[in-house]
Amino acid sequence: MATLKEAKVGSTVKVKKLTGEGAIKRRIMDMGITKGVEIYIRKVAPLGDPIEVTVRGYELSLRKADAEMIEVE
């Protein structure tokens, strides 16, 4: 199963499932990242943190740990 962390820069992926718990999952969902939404990966910092994405027209930065909790296809 692929996670957002493994997605290639410049690709668009679709969220399949959020695996986080409690406050972390809520924070991800508050960013508009929910099942079925498309995420465009704009840029990944040299060490992989943060990952810059576009979701629902908003530009966001995600921590690597958060990106690991987002299963994509």
Description of the structure:
The chain is 18% helix and 40% strand. With 73 residues, it is of the alpha+beta class. It has a six-stranded antiparallel sheet. Strand 4 (51-55) and strand 5 (58-62) form a beta hairpin. The longest helix has 9 residues, at 22-30. The radius of gyration is 11 Å and the shape is globular. The chain starts with a strand and ends with a strand. 22% of the residues are buried.
SSE layout and pairings?
Blueprint lengths: L1 E2 L8 E7 L3 H9 L7 E7 L6 E5 L2 E5 L1 H4 L2 E3 L1
Antiparallel strand pairs: 1-6, 2-3, 2-6, 3-4, 4-5
Give a short synopsis of this structure:
The protein has helices at 22-30, 64-67; strands at 2-3, 12-18, 38-44, 51-55, 58-62, 70-72.
Largest β-sheet summary: 6 strands, antiparallel
Q: Helical residue percent?
A: 10-25%
Structure classification: alpha+beta
Radius of gyration: 11 Å
| Strand neighbour order, sheet with most strands | 1-6-2-3-4-5
Keywords, separated by commas or semicolons:
40% strand; single chain; 2 helices; 6 strands
